[in-house]
Amino acid sequence: MRPGVGVSGVALRLGAVLLALLFTTGILLVAGAPPLEAYRQIVVGSLGSVKKITDVLVAWVPLVLATSGLLVTFAAGLWNIGIEGQITLGAIFTTGALRLTMDSGLPPAVAIAAGLLAGILGGALWALLAGLLKAYGGVNEIFGGLGLNFVAVALSVWLIFGPWGRPGVASMSGTEPFPDSLSLPALAGLRLSPWAVLLAVGGFALVFFLLQGTYFGLRLKAVGKNPRAAFVLGIPTVRYMLLAFVLCGGLGGAAGAVQVTAVYHRLIPAISSGYGYLGLMVAMLVNYQPTWMPLVAFFFAALNIGSIQLPIVLKLDSSLAGVLQGALVLFVLGMEGVRRRLRRPRVRVGE
Amino acid sequence: MSSEALLIGLAGVLAAAAPIVFATLGETLTERSGVINLSVNGTILLAAMASFGVAVTTGSLLLGFLTGMLVGAVVALVVAGFGISLKQSQVAVGFVLTLMGRDLAYFLGNPFMGLSGPRLPALAIPLLDGIPVLGPLFFRQDLLTYLSFVLIFATWAWIFRTRPGLSLISVGERPAAAYVRGLRVNRMRYLYAMVGGALVGLAGPAFSLSVKAGWKGTISGLDGYGWIALAITIFGGWNPIRAAFGAYLFVFLQWLGLVLQPSLPGVPSQVLQVAPFPLMILALLLVNIGNTEWVERTLAALPDSTRLFIVRVLRSLRASPPAALGTPFEKE
């Protein structure tokens, strides 16, 4: 979304949303499912009650944290697919820190703070690894990050079944749950912790300010647009690149820390819940600009939460949410391309 | 392990590598033309589901395989359309499609979950299958595995030994020069993206109708192979024979992990299962590190004898992508 998106831009975007809905409706018809009822279930399942809306916010928090981080790496021209692993490592570090402080008699508030910081550190270190592989090993961050994602999941599974396993009954259900005192306090009767929301808002504000209001952000974008020119102009490109990785990993790690301290209260095998990959889609949908990101992230989180109803009520797979999200991004990208083609003066040579 | 069991194991490795060989060959062709199709992982899942569904419903294996190839070609067409004609980032579109392909496969594959379907039978080649060692290794496979052997050399010969292959290389390396020479750059890129996509798509039924027959949704165990195939394409230096070697090496190591597991009780199975991924990073490191500036600088400071040796090793491993990979071609 460039600053000067005019009326035609809005119209094309609405067109993209309609096309995505049309496509998803087609898929539902192919599957022999009633489309309107499926959409109704998603809406009711995500916005139907205060409880549902707070559930959407529970998903919104890690998504916003991860996407905020990704906006930094995208600004530096990096495809940080390793974000999933960074979330996972954040969760692992948080779990480790909480286990260490659990029996030390530290006040719970200090223990939780230490857990969050450890999570941020864990994500940042995992991202730094991908950054070092790229900067000094020539390994494209997409493949380095992806490999590290699989390693991170294996590490968490190994910890859950091995050293951190529940005594006697180590299973996919995760590690022994932490006592309530080691959780971020939630609103009465709900799963949502206002502290987690605060963390997400803080993470987003930090990135917004960094990218829109500082020289650091400006230089980072210069590195992203043209690393060679930026280097010639005296910007230490490698250091900026690594810093972008560390910032993104730290925010991803914070997302993992929230998953442990506010959502699952333990380490589970799929702790990242795909929020990293979803964050990449959100970032694409807002054209890598922060302004509208929290809103779009809320919409995506609502789709995820709403689709949980589908298998229960309509015996459909909940992956429909992913189909709709993917179609949205795809058609928005397509419309952007169409718009560019229309604006460009047509010069046809040969062919 | 008896030598007979070893032979059967190795023959299994050759068969199990067939889908990965198809996918890497397809991606190699695609990337040689300058298009990067990142959707491989999702394409394989969608193609595996669709072809299994078609094969179960119609009872025809052939229709199943064709469906897989069609799915791959259509996904590739979307990547090419967005990347070439609409000038969008090929990486972005490919990534969206890889997630969407997976979700579509899980959503639409729901009714086929756990059904038993047809499976490609083994087809021993008479006379040749009697040769000691080579017979059981190469000539008692199924049709698809034979096809994978043939395609490795056919693709290599096409790229490096024919005139159209030379055109393909030029379109991926210097599209402007190729255009001036009269080649229709974008049309060729569409074509190779779709042919390559069809090969990637063939990997789907190669799994669901042969190597890992059936469709079991999220526990089909196919998620991840596409990414491995993309990495092997790089490891293979965009050369079909080297890429195939990478695919066989990968599956061999996977098999080795399985065989060795009982004798390594100290190593948890989760570690061996993901061993391919750190290996993939290591392989990419070996292939790429020779291209980095600091290595060149460090090498320059070494005495000649050691330097020349290291340079020779790095150079033999090194691979550079087609120069125009992922960038759209615009006529001035």
Task: Provide an overview of this structure.
The complex is a heterodimer of chains A (351) and B (332). With 351 residues, chain A is mainly α. Chain A has a domain at 64-277. Helix content of chain A is 72%, strand content 0%. Chain A contains 14 helices and no strands. In chain A, helix 5 packs antiparallel against helix 6 (141-161). The longest helix of chain A has 30 residues, at 108-137. In chain A, 53% of the residues are buried. Chain B is mostly helical and 332 residues long. Chain B folds into two domains: 3-266, ABC transporter involved in vitamin B12 uptake, BtuC, CATH 1.10.3470; 275-320, no CATH class. Chain B contains 16 helices and no strands. Chain B has helices at residues 3-16, 18-32, 40-58, 61-85, 90-108, 134-138, 143-161, 163-173, 175-180, 185-211, 225-235, 240-260, 269-274, 276-288, 293-300, 304-317. Chain B starts with a helix and ends in a 15-residue tail after the last helix. At the A-B interface, helix 5, helix 6, helix 11 and helix 14 of A face helix 4, helix 5, helix 11, helix 13 and helix 14 of B.
Name a few traits of the molecule.
heterodimer; A: 351 residues; mainly alpha; 14 helices; B: 332 residues; ABC transporter involved in vitamin B12 uptake, BtuC; 2 domains; 16 helices; 0% strand; globular
Give a concise summary.
Chain A is an all-alpha fold and 351 residues long.
Which regions of chain B have little confidence, pLDDT < 50, spanning 5+ residues?
Answer: none
User: Terminal Cα separation of chain B, in Å?
Assistant: 64 Å
The shape of chain B, in one word, is globular
Q: Can you give the mean pLDDT of chain B?
A: 89
Average of the residue pLDDT scores of chain A: 90
Based on secondary structure, the structural category of chain A is mainly alpha
Summarize the largest interface: chains and residue counts: A-B, 52 and 52 residues
Low-confidence stretches of chain A: none
DSSP strand tally of chain B: 0
The domain tally of chain B reads 2
Query: Which CATH class of the largest domain in chain B?
Result: Mainly Alpha
Which value, in Å, is the CA radius of gyration of chain A? 21 Å
- General shape of chain A: globular
Note the beta-strand portion of chain A.
under 5%
* CATH architectural arrangement of the largest domain in chain B: Orthogonal Bundle
> What is the oligomer described by this structure?
heterodimer
What fraction, in percent, of the residue positions of chain B are helical?
Answer: over 70%
Largest sheet of chain B: none
The portion of residues assigned to helices of chain A is over 70%
